[in-house]
Write a structure and sequence with these properties.
Blueprint (H helix, E strand, L loop, with lengths): L1 E6 L6 H11 L11 E8 L9 E9 L2 E9 L2 H21 L8 H12 L23 E2 L1 H11 L3 E6 L4 E7 L5 E4 L19
Parallel strand pairs: 1-2, 5-6
Antiparallel strand pairs: 2-3, 3-4, 6-7, 7-8
Helix pairs in contact: 1-2
């Protein structure tokens, strides 16, 4: 497997380059010698310094693109996270039955088109989830959730409503007010008071 490591608006240090190359060797057992992988390192301004270092990996397995992104407080930590995630996805992918495989020359062309942003993602498997965020969630009232959302500068906020102990999603409407989504399983809202669902 050939791994290309490059920086987005930064010079990749020798230490980062060696570390990424070494970590990517874990994927070699899943890919053949003709496969290519592109790893891009960048630094983005972020409210949380623990998410300022970004590592994006793009590779092609049996003609299908596989992409992953991770953020951390260093490129080493981000590389660990994204390569671990990609390794699990690559194993799952290899275990699925394949109807046909692209020729190696097509795989290289596909990887290049993914790298320069010209790939047709609808044809090549469509958009993928590239980031998973987990966070602690605490019961709070709607007013507290609105204040917290404004404090964070987000356009939506997930919380547990202290009034009914249900997960709710607060979002900012185009008219400047807020909306509240109260999910229910099976299509029926089942709070303590029947018919207490509110239209937002």
């Amino acid at each position: 497997m050939r791994t290309i490591v490059k920086g987005k608006n930064l010079d990749v240090s020798d230490a980062d380059h060696r570390y990424v190359q070494q970590k990517m060797q874990r994927l070699e057992r899943l890919l053949d010698d003709r496969s290519e992988a592109l790893v891009e390192l960048s630094i983005e301004r972020h409210k949380n310094d623990d998410e300022s270092h970004l590592v994006e990996v793009t590779l092609v397995i049996d003609g299908a693109p596989l992409r992953g992104v991770a953020r951390a407080n260093s490129h080493h930590a981000a590389a660990d996270a994204v390569i671990d995630r990609l390794e699990r996805r690559a194993v799952d992918h290899k275990q699925r039955p394949r109807i046909r495989r692209r020729r190696p020359i097509e795989e290289k062309a596909l990887l290049r088109s993914l790298a320069d942003g010209t790939a047709d993602l609808a044809r090549d498997g469509g958009p993928q989830v590239v980031k998973v965020k987990r966070f602690a969630i605490e019961p709070m009232f709607e007013e507290d959730a609105m204040a917290r959302m404004q404090e964070l500068g987000h356009s939506f906020f997930v919380f547990v409503n202290a009034e009914n102990e249900r997960i709710a999603v607060l979002y900012r409407r185009q008219d400047g007010h807020f909306g509240l989504i109260e999910p229910s399983v099976g299509g029926a809202y089942t709070s303590g008071n029947a018919g207490d669902a509110r239209s937002r």
